[in-house]
Each structure stands twice: as structure tokens, then as C-alpha cells.
Amino acid sequence: MTLAETMKPYYADDLVTIYHGDCREWMPEADVIVTDPPYGTAHYATDTTVLTPALLAEWIGRYPRVAVFGYPERLATLVGGSEVIPTEWIVWWPTNGALRGTNLSGLWRETEHIAVFGKHHMNTLRRPRTGNGMHMARAAHRLEGRGEVRKRRPRAEPADEARMGDVWRDASPGLAHLSGARLHPNEKPLTLMSRLVVGMTTLADTVLDPFMGSGTTLVAAKSLNRKAIGIEIEERYCEIAARRCSQEVLGLTA
Prior knowledge:
Strand order of the largest sheet: 1-2-11-10-3-4-6-5-9
Oligomer: single chain
Structural class: alpha/beta
CATH topology of the largest domain: Rossmann fold
Number of strands: 11
CATH superfamily of the largest domain: Vaccinia Virus protein VP39
């Protein structure tokens, strides 16, 4: 009997399945990997260097689409070692980033990055326009009308939104005086993970998070009516993720 045949779900519902185990020993089939692996900074018991360049390369070869978080220097090492060029490189710079200093030597880490591999539809993602953006667009159009801008005018976007860029500013949950409410040391905002799931998947896809943590990727997928599988080595986080996924989740528009 294979390991896959002996694995029993820790939790399961119509859309989400959670396994308590080590993803290095078993990985199920899925269409997309979206994950935030341990960074190896020893901030908690299992924060060790688990994801290697060889393992990342194996994932990229096996799964159609992969999105992986990391500090820039760590993620660059992983990507370089995998010898696969990402199709997208996203910077997550949270609005409360100034509070996110770590005990690493050197500069404080105010950003984390996301390497995306495989065909996706990130170019369909939209964001609200800012006042400054509208002001700059109007100024450019006025200059163009006077012949001071020779470049072709870009295709008009809807008045209240624009294409999503490669810098995402979702606030990090549970920092500073709110740290007691944080579900995991590396917890990501639900808005960030939902946007990533939308850009990486269709309704028919199954999302896999092999470093599930508190289950934000799974909650995002379930909110968007996608199937999702999570694997987590620490049972306490399996319990947290199971509790979150068992609560009523309102569907979002994909």
C-alpha cells in the first residue's frame, strides 16, 4: 500500500481537504500550488529551510502553475537554483510594512516577494484608480493634446479601475498591538491570497498549499468556490485551519 493510499484527511468538506503531514513525503495531484514556505529564520519551531531549489524545480515540472512567497534574497536563490525563469515577480509591500522589522542582520524586511511560474491570467486583475493616478493620466492627455507627448495614447481603462501592477499593498494582519490576534507567525492577508488565487486559477481548478500554516490560502480558495488541499506539519495549525474552513464562508466574485 502506498503512502497516498494510507493518508487520512485531518479535515474535509465539499471544497477543502486538510492533511497533517510533511509535504516532502507526499504531494497530491492539483492544478495550482500557492504557498508561503518557511523562510528558515527560526522564528518558530518548524521555521527551517524546507523548500530547496531542487524541490521547487520538481514542483514546476509537475504542476501547471506555481506561486511561492519569500524574502527577496531567499526567493532569488530558490529561483536561480531551480533554473526556471518566473513568468511574474510580484512584490508584496504591506501598507503597515514599516512595522515588519525582523531580527535579521542588515535592512529591515518591509517586503516579501512572490515568484509565479506557468501560464496564468494575472493581466485580468484590476485595482481601483488612485487620485494621483487619475491626475497624472489627465495631465498626460493634456500634454498630448498640445503635441508635447508623442507616444501613442494607451487604451482607455474604466474610469474607476486600472490594471493590477506588480506591487501589492495589502496590510499584514496582526502586527504591533494586534500581534495577539495573529494566527501564524507568517500569516498573510486574506485579500492578498484571494487575489493570487483568482489570478492563478479557474473555477475548475484545485489549489494546493503544501505549507498551509493557518489555512489562509484554503479560506481564500473556498471563498472563491475553488477546491483546495492543504498540508501542514504542525497539528495545532491544522486545527486552526480546519476551524476557519468549517465556518460559513461567503462566496466572492471571481
